[in-house]
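User: I'm writing a tutorial on reading structure tokens. Could you give me a worked example: one chain, its sequence, then its tokens, then a sentence or two explaining what the tokens reveal?
Assistant: Sure. Here is the example chain.
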Amino acid sequence: MDTTPVRRRHKRVSGSPGADPGRVPELLVLVCSVAAAAAAVAQPLVLGRALDLLLHDGSAGPWLAVSVALLTGEVLLDGLTALLTGRCTAAWTASIRSRALAGLLRAVPDATRPYSAGDVGTRLTLNASDAGGAPAARAALAASLITPAGALVALVFVDVWVAGCVLAGLPALALVLRVFARDTGASVRAYQRVQSDIAGRLLEALEGAETIAAAGTADRERERVLRPLTELGALGERMWVLHGRALATGGVLVPLLTVAATAVGGLRLGAGALSVGELLAVCRYAQLAAGFGSAATLLGALVRGRTARERTTALERLPALRHGDRTLPPGGPGVLALRGVRVLREGTEVLRADDVVVPGGATAAVVGRSGAGKSVLAAVAGRLIDPDEGEVLLDGAPLDSLTRASLRAEVGFAFARPVLGDGTVAEAVAAGTPPVTERRVREAVRLAGADAFVRRLPRTYDTPLADVPLSGGEYQRLGLARAFAHAGRLLVMDDATSSLDTATEHAVDRAVRHALEGTTRLVVAHRPSVAARADLVIWLEDGRVREVGPHRLLWERAAYRAVFATDADPGADEADTGPAGVRAVSLHGEARP
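And here are its predicted structure tokens:
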């Protein structure tokens, strides 16, 4: 049992996530819809023939049977179409949602900054659902146009004069649909944008609920969250007005066309050019041919779906890191080097790191004031993002030349707010690359100082995380355990011990040094005690590496001490740095050019 990799125990969904359902579901909807339309088009002609035979000599049995069969077939096909439409919509919604989520998860973190949590949630739920309905709506729209087109063709065969009368009114219906589609698209885009804005504000309020309650600003926050409702209501009203206008116009034109066709048909009947049955067919075909106007509802769904698809596609197409085909040979020391690294955001340089080297197996603390670029350096060092210039090397190999599997097996991360999922404690710690055994999971939990509280849980390591309320420190320790369980030759810890008290943090550091002796560690530090225990300190200031060296030597500098004291003078000791303001120091304290 101890040597068996821990795997998630819940049932997995078969098939590849985000697999494209293809055109088959849509084609099935189209085939059934067209078959139902064909039955509807054939029905008036058959019924008219049956009526003529009944009036002539009463021998209309076969024609009546065909008429009943067509009517029954139309009803059954409509039911089957509804079933296939539901399955098509469900398949496409699942596919769109999965692909958008996959694009979001593999994206470069910086690329996701423009999308708030509420915006992402709206795109993955409401927008994905609307987009998933577009293929079925497209098939239904095509079928809805086949019915009037077929009726018009049938009218030509029955009586060309009535067909000409109906044709004269169709351009007006086409113009109504064109204007509706154009105006609805702009309104739907704006409506979906405001929906995302409200969702984002609501999530922000939920995340800060305790702060809002403590500050007594609930009324102000409610007003802030609901402020866009006025715009949303106006946009919704405009969409309904456009939809109602299209339906109302069609509702006027359709009866007018039907009356005109009936009048012409009556005149043709009086002239002996049409029989009573043919007149019945003409009237029915005129109604079906005017059905172009009833396509407004389906057209609206299609426009809404296409607009929503643009929003989900934006997540799918987020830029992702490209990986190479190299793997690191086993047993490397884990030397980390940043050569000429530059990171830009919106044209502003947020990180500059020239010739920074962390020896294999050493612990390097990254320190600096808020906004100095600590998290950016951590992200670059572990290749969550790529630098705009320069390169990052691990044991001499550029990180961007490694395969994804090799990169994630050799470079691990621990964060201040880890995401552990909804599995058990053991599954949360085991999640990652490569697979780990149960024994390794328990060792990692002990290293993170989490074993004591895990054993107090109802089912210890098999306790689902969703069933127990854990504190921020307990979550953080489980996140550390996951990082320790998968530690390769480099471990990046971005503020990963911020929720731990000093004694626990020191105990964890001591245990990790002993158990992960061969792993190079890059630690974003805010406490001088953490920097003091590190072999090396990388001191950042305004996005630049000001100095690199042991904490005991840097501590002699007032400006360095000011990093850890909020009331210190940030400009102290500027004169020590020399003309360039940067001095590199080796592990042994000697200055390097």
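What the tokens reveal: The first helix runs from residue 24 to 56. The mean pLDDT is 78.
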